[in-house]
Design brief:
Blueprint lengths: L1 E2 L4 E2 L6 E8 L4 E9 L4 E9 L5 E7 L10 E9 L4 E8 L16 E2 L10 E8 L2 H29 L4 H13 L3 H14 L4 H13 L3 H14 L4 H13 L3 H14 L4 H11 L2
Antiparallel strand pairs: 1-10, 2-9, 3-8, 4-7, 4-10, 5-6, 5-8
Helix pairs in contact: 1-2, 2-3, 3-4, 4-5, 4-6, 5-6, 6-7, 7-8
Length: about 280
């Protein structure tokens, strides 16, 4: 997926650009393409720049039609070598000249799921050469997925700064990118906005436990369980803390509680078995 949430199309704009890129870490065959936008999209460009600088077109629509949404399979797979840069370049016409413009007179339009909003998505279905390359591609693309999700939650917070779910999800995405302090800030905001919701307390406890602030982490997991007694992950984390503190009996009770709530909790099962063998 190539996409962007950075859309703020002013009224009267006739050539508003939106772009995204991704560098392929392995050789692939491109099998299909799926473009997606709404009524303001005008020209859609999708292409690959090969390592030698050659430009290979994958999609070119001069005058986009909303009814063309869908996936299109290439007559023959398009080979792209490792290091090729996939590019999306869409332009939007938010003027009165665009007969498909749903707003007359035109108004400012941003990203959103409604047809009166706009979107920019270009999906490619690709086939790596072997299982090893598939694993490399999946691992590399996971970083881009995190970036896309981070940008999406930042977009949600721009339109509603009091969105506790977006604060919580953004916090954990930032943590995966090494931005833990920002993650702490967003979790505290989520707790301020929705003090009766267990998830931000749970994730705050996880971050505190990684910092070895065990007393503070314990308080957050206990709060999460108070708000949601079925939060088996909080039970399991309390078990780990008590085990770390040298209290296996108390730890055992929390692991048993976690397994009662979720018998498939493999970590709780493994750790409980280890305690029972002591």
């Amino acid at each position: 997926l190539l996409t962007s949430f950075e859309m703020n199309i002013p009224p009267g704009a006739t050539n508003y650009p939106v772009k995204d890129d991704y560098i392929l870490p392995v050789d692939v065959d491109v099998l299909a393409v799926l473009p997606h936008a709404h009524y303001l999209a005008r020209e859609m460009q999708g292409y690959a720049t090969l390592p030698d600088g050659t430009k290979k077109w994958l999609l070119l629509i001069r005058q986009w039609d909303f009814n063309w949404q869908g996936d299109y399979r290439y007559a023959r797979p398009v080979f792209l070598p490792k290091g090729s840069r996939l590019s999306m370049r869409f332009t939007y016409d938010n003027s009165t000249n665009n007969v498909r413009n749903p707003n007359q007179p035109p108004k400012r339009v941003g990203y959103g799921p409604q047809s009166s909003d706009e979107m920019a998505e270009l999906w490619f279905q690709v086939l790596p050469r072997n299982q090893g390359d598939l694993n490399l591609l999946a691992e590399d693309y996971e970083r881009k997925k995190v970036e896309v999700l981070r940008e999406y939650n930042e977009f949600l917070l721009r339109i509603d700064p009091e969105n506790a779910v977006a604060h919580t999800e953004l916090a954990m995405l930032l943590v995966t990118q090494g931005r833990k302090e920002e993650g702490f800030d967003h979790l505290r905001e989520a707790i301020r906005i929705r003090p009766d919701w267990d998830e931000p307390h749970y994730y705050l406890g996880v971050l505190l436990r990684t910092r070895k602030q065990l007393a503070e982490a314990k308080a957050e997991f206990e709060k999460a369980l108070q708000l949601n007694p079925k939060n088996y992950k909080a039970d399991g984390n309390l078990g780990l803390i008590y085990l770390q503190e040298g209290n296996p009996d108390r730890a055992e009770s929390y692991f048993r509680s976690a397994l009662q709530l979720n018998p498939d909790d493999s970590l709780a099962r493994k750790t409980l078995d280890e305690i029972l063998r002591l």
